[in-house]
Design brief:
2 copies of one chain form a homodimer.
Chain A (H helix, E strand, L loop, with lengths): L8 H4 L13 H7 L4 H11 L5 H44 L7 H19 L11 E4 L6 E6 L2 E11 L11 H5 L5 H17 L4 H5 L1 H33 L8 H11 L5 H10 L3 H27 L12 H35 L6 H21 L4 H19 L2 H32 L7 H29 L6 H9 L5 H8 L5 H23 L1 H7 L28 H11 L2 H18 L6 H4 L5 H7 L2 H6 L21 E6 L5 E6 L13 H8 L23
Antiparallel strand pairs in A: 2-3, 4-5
């Protein structure tokens, strides 16, 4: 069952990068058009005089074709929707019967695959209805063409270049063409809601507590992984050249590009199982945070690699200037997109704070949606990356705006983006399944594929283990071996790698990368995704943890090095040990940003210097004075790596026979102490210094092999 | 300030119906494309050898253009989003300050207008960047063209025909072109959520109680209105011909078409004020029901008129065969679309009933969304009208599926469609404002416009007053004069009329219709919308009514003809007077459809004949046996025209000084009697026969001119 049968290496040779800007996304597009044409052409036909009968007839014919085409588009889109419906029903069945070996995304891929097979082998290859006409011109290809047909002028737009060998096969299989989307649909329509939702659901203090490690994994890790995979693949490509298996150019930059796109991990399957089993929250935060941020890094990294263009004739030698330009582009795009996202988030927070919009949840939700969307457009308009901007906008919205929203809007916005994310994600995965058989330019090279599998394994290992080692030097709350193995194992590839790979399939090298990426996604989602539950059990990772509570001070997963001293002393030590940069950020955020952007935090009149008195009074919301006492717990995210470890905790013992006992030790905070507003004091309180009653209990956790409940 | 300055009548002459199927919706589309191209072309450039340098440079140039274009698209869409954001903030301000003379849609139009003026007069008219190349061919225009440029082949697609005079002005003002959407965007993207939401929020027993009248207004009324407006406009056109003001053909069918599109009322402004002031629920039901259904009627009617094509040379004489064919098309499309919508709704109801999907609100919401969307596609794929199908799907979903959803999914689906509806509606209205100045083919004819205003006034009068008279012959619960005046007054035109008018602007007649429709929408939304509150007061229409309660038996609005006999006797009479067709439907719905499709109603085992025992047991949900006692009030919609008039009621007296007193007389239903399941008994109960304690109070309502609260 070789998916690329019709697309052997030699085939792709002549397909050069077409100006894809002008390729239509046939399905979505023609859905926008098509219909109603009946009205148009018929009307024109009826308004024409008898002399114009023949032209009216012609238009009617075109009309009929258009209508037929619109009908086919509806059928194609309907196919996708029924596919998703089927997926939803099967997911329900799986969830209902507690089947965990196959995630919804894997399921969507399987259904997509089945439909792809049917479309490929079940439908007759219809030859293009449109007769093509050749006319010769001398100059370069224009994007607009005017054609004079017996006195009437028609406007044509450039669709792309066609390799000479393919001229007769244009539109050979209409149905396969119909179900092929323009790759930019993924970047401009489907990825933004997925990424925004990821950012918007990052509001977990466990994320901020592990922020340092997450940033290290995301930035350093992705760079290391990209570099290692790129180099290994270059070796594979050299080998293929020696073996004579390579029929076209494959440069070092191509290999690095492959390294960048395949470094975007997407452990959606693993995280879904973590969520369901309530697995360890710190591991969840590490994995989720890494995967969210490394998507952004991978996008920007891949564009930077593409932007690497040495001067001179030899465009593939190393050029320091071009290299630094690429690094500059990386930093520029990343920081620009970050700024765009943060600024829109901040503006939304200010708008929701200073208007009483929360009386009208519908308006509030609509505003929130529009502002978040405008981030994407703003970033694209400024030449930055919309998807990255949307991610940081989501994080900012969750951190600030969310607090200003009415209770109804909070759930509305969450649910809205949840649905959009769900639909978009499953759509992408079912499209992946479909693409394996319907994509027309597969280049299936076994050596490259095997090499890629080895390379991504080594790339992930070379990034997780050494980085964890160095991070553990700094972390008091160490990342245990079982956590490292689990992170290593969770290197699934998903929507982002696919979207990056399908974005450009013009050259032979890119086609090979696309096919390989597709197979890697399939393998990792099905095999690794399915192996998550046994792996969790095998690695002795705690499950059944209440995500709002902290892990016990010492358990199997975390290797706390020092002895169990009195907790108050440890709290003090924690405070001193936490990195100064986070303490700085925390106090800045708590003293200035939170009060300016939300209704919480200490009044600015107390935190700002006296000479800013007027400004402070304007910016401080009146609610702060009232609410000062019951400082909302949800707002006080802890950004220290291990600060509030001893504040409250709870864990459960789950044994193999499925019986579970949950023990929760909660600590009551004495509200009466909550009057001072200095950040140091709040920090101390957050860290559990002082008046906490702490009980500590060591637990032995055995993973349930089968949930009998 | 003549908006059509640059588009004088003569101008439109040569613009013949282009095969609009192939016109791009520039904004949406190029957002899908564009970006990432940087990656594509740059990659191709870097993979090319030195010999290919020139072609790479060429591609880079195309690339730069594409990128620039994508950036412009983002800016354009951003403009719309900022416009909507501004609208939302201003709406909030208006709601906050209780300003009622301007509705959000009117506001959106104003902002659109301002941006339109800026775009039109503020931006320089850039000449097209793309050099155009003419090459002559002999045959008809193909939709695909292959062009040989020095050995390389490029594929072009047909974009449309261009009038010879315009060849040099193609892409004259890039910015104006950018903000022009393909008309089909309205039908395929923006209208479906609006219409679905209307259908989904129709679940009001007042709607079903007035169903007969609503159907009469929607079907007969729209047909009458269309015919009268069409004939009056034909007179106007004849007059214009005599005056020499008509520069191109304008047939009788065109006039009828105009009558059809302009008969779609959209009293969104009026209904919003009704909602806010809690105006009379029956009047609300009549207006809302009429406007929802007459949209559907107007769409199908307009396509039927377009489909009217007499045989023979004289294509504009009356032809009985063609006429009956048109009637057949009307009935076919309408009933087909209705069936599609109802069937998808029923399937969704069955799926949600027989799976335990309600344990997973996200899955349930996603399924609901996908199924509702698939209605649209299914109808389009079968050649029916998607928008009409979506309407009936919404009604079915509200009537059956809604009862099977979990509590969370109910609010989720409602909120999801509420947001989509809100965004789509305000987008359309702000686009209308924009189109007045940016649309390039306005034909501004004062005589036609004045004639149209008179015609729509007369058309509405000729439909409301006579129909109300005939309906009042049958209704016991008469539609009073003040209600009739209010309905006459509420004949606003909105999104649907606009969408139908912009769908085809190829011929001179259609362009004139479009300009006129736009002005009618502006006038009605601003002037009539703003006059709603004074009009309500002037007509003495009750406000401050609890929508869940019934009007008092006799007040100013309803002219109950017979004397005030004992209520139980009246109830009995009511029961006998109600139309047999509704009684039939009610008992069928209550005994069979509700139990089959939802968890409510009597068990099928009691309503179906004994020989269907097995089937009945399979279809009846176990909950029915448990829930039989507390029959949910929300499920028992009353489809009788005036049945439960005396069940409960409440009204409030609002006086001009702003003080309001609300008196509610509630009637407790004795649950203990609710054991029998025969539909007759339920009907009797619903009608308030028997054990109701009714107190009646005549009230005098004075509308508050200013809300001081």
């Amino acid at each position: 069952m070789e998916p690329g049968d019709a697309a052997r290496p030699g085939f792709g040779r002549a397909a050069r990068a077409p100006p894809r800007r002008l390729l239509l996304p046939p399905l979505l597009l023609s859905l926008l058009l098509g219909r109603g044409l009946r009205v148009a052409a018929a009307a024109s036909a009826s308004s024409g005089a008898a002399a114009e009968d023949s032209s009216a007839m012609e238009e009617l014919a075109t009309e009929k074709e258009a209508e037929e085409s619109h009908r086919q588009d509806s059928v194609s889109l309907l196919t996708f929707i029924l596919l998703l419906t089927l997926t939803i029903l099967t997911i329900w069945l799986f969830k209902h019967r507690r089947v965990r070996f196959l995630h919804e995304t894997g399921l969507a891929m399987i259904y997509g695959l089945i439909v792809g097979v049917i479309l490929r082998y079940g439908t007759p290859a219809t030859s293009g209805r449109d007769k093509s006409l050749s006319c010769t011109q001398e100059d370069r290809a224009f994007s607009t063409l005017l054609v004079n047909v017996s006195g009437k002028f028609f406007e044509y737009t450039l669709k792309g270049e066609i390799s000479p060998g393919k001229i007769n096969s244009v539109e050979q299989n209409d149905m396969l063409r119909k179900v092929t989307f323009d790759p930019e649909v993924f970047f401009n329509i489907l990825l933004p809601p997925i990424i925004f939702h990821a950012g918007y659901s990052l509001k977990k203090r466990h994320f901020f507590r592990n922020l340092g490690s997450i940033l290290a994994y995301a930035f350093l890790g992705t760079a290391v992984s990209c570099f290692i995979i790129g180099n290994l693949m270059y070796g594979v490509v050299k080998l293929m050249k020696i073996m004579g298996q390579l029929s076209d150019k494959f440069y070092y930059t191509d290999c690095l590009f492959f390294g960048a796109i395949i470094s975007a991990t997407d452990p959606v399957t693993v995280l879904a199982i973590f969520n369901e089993l309530h697995a360890d929250v710190d591991l969840y935060a590490l994995l989720f945070g890494e995967s969210v941020l490394n998507d952004a890094v991978a996008i920007v990294l891949s564009s930077s690699i593409v932007a690497y263009q040495p001067a001179g004739l030899n465009t593939h030698a190393f050029d320091a200037a071009a290299f630094f330009k690429s690094v500059g582009i990386f930093l520029g795009i990343f920081s620009g997109s970050f700024t765009m996202g943060a600024v829109t988030g901040v503006v939304t927070a200010l708008v929701t704070k200073f208007t009483k919009l929360h009386c009208f949840p519908l308006l509030e939700t609509a505003l929130f949606f529009l502002m978040s969307w405008s981030t994407f457009l703003l970033a694209e308009a400024c030449g930055f990356t919309g998807v990255v901007a949307v991610l940081f906008c989501g994080i900012t919205q969750a951190h600030y705006t969310y607090n200003n929203l009415s209770v109804e809007s909070r759930s509305r916005t969450k649910q809205l983006f949840e649905v959009l994310h769900f639909l978009a994600e499953n759509f992408i995965f079912s499209y992946m399944g479909l693409a394996l058989f319907t994509f027309q330019k597969h280049v299936f090279s076994p050596v490259f594929i095997i090499g890629a599998f080895v390379a991504i394994f080594l790339g992930r290992a070379a990034h997780i283990y050494p980085l964890s080692f160095f991070l553990n030097l700094g972390r008091r709350h160490k990342i245990g071996w079982n956590f490292q193995h689990m992170m290593m194992f969770s290197g699934l590839r998903g929507a982002m790698a696919f979207a990056l790979a399908i974005r450009d399939t013009a050259s032979y090298a890119r086609q090979m990368m696309f096919t390989t990426t597709l197979l890697i996604v399939f393998f990792t989602v099905w095999i690794i995704g399915g192996g998550t539950t046994p792996m969790l059990s095998w690695l002795n990772i705690r499950v059944g943890v209440d995500p709002d509570q902290d892990p016990p001070p010492n358990n199997d997963s975390f290797q706390v090095l020092q002895g169990d001293g009195p907790d108050s002393a440890r709290g003090n030590r924690t405070k001193q040990e936490s990195a100064w940069i986070f303490r700085l950020w925390y106090s800045f955020d708590h003293n200035y940003l939170k009060p300016i952007l939300t209704h919480s935090g200490p009044p600015l009149t107390t935190t700002l210097p006296a000479w800013c008195g007027l400004l402070a009074r304007c910016l401080t919301s009146p609610q702060v004075y009232d609410n000062q006492e019951p400082l909302r717990e949800e707002d006080s995210d802890f950004i220290l790596t291990e600060g509030d470890l001893t504040l409250t905790y709870g864990d459960s013992t789950v044994t193999a026979n499925g019986s579970s006992g949950s023990h929760t030790g909660s600590t009551s905070l004495e509200g009466s102490r909550r009057t001072k507003s200095s950040s140091e004091e709040v920090l101390e309180r957050d860290l559990g210094v002082g008046d906490q009653k702490v009980s500590s209990r060591g637990t032995r956790l055995v993973f349930p092999l089968e949930d009998n409940a």
